[in-house]
What does this fold into?
Amino acid sequence: MLSPAQPPNEAERLAALYELLLLDTPPEQRFDTIVEFAASEFDVPICLISLIDHDRQWFKARFGLAACSTPRDISFCAHAILQPDIMVVPDALEDARFADNPLVTRDPHIRFYAGAPLALPSGQAIGTLCIIDTQPRTLDAVELQILSSLRELLVLELTGKGKAEHG
It folds into this structure.
């Protein structure tokens, strides 16, 4: 298993995350609706809004997973925030970064992962919108565009820009 590297701008990234005042807050329907929709749209058993803290990934919203957080060093999402575009892992057992990861070898038995980094307007990637399956699979261009569009809507909600539209 390859633990994720820390971004070169880690201090700024964490400051941007903490400024949102979202960590360890109660569930909110607006975020729950996004993960429920994404899970249905992509026909996956797990969908998460994951925020990458100093030593954990914490789930602001989750569908199909009981855990509220996992350690950052085994997090797929901590790898995903290191790149600007969606990270797709078609089969985690075939990927050296994840093949012996406990999230792959034990519950929840991740085989497929797609994580769309949640980059704030400042450029800081604070987490991901991710979809997970227990079976290997891929995403086509249309599905990648849908996941990207959902990510854009989610960033608006995370930054409060979507709230004004809802009242």
Observations:
- The two ends are 45 Å apart (CA to CA).
- The chain has six helices and six strands.
- Strands lie at 46-52, 56-63, 69-71, 87-89, 112-119, 125-133.
- The first strand starts at residue 46 and ends at 52.
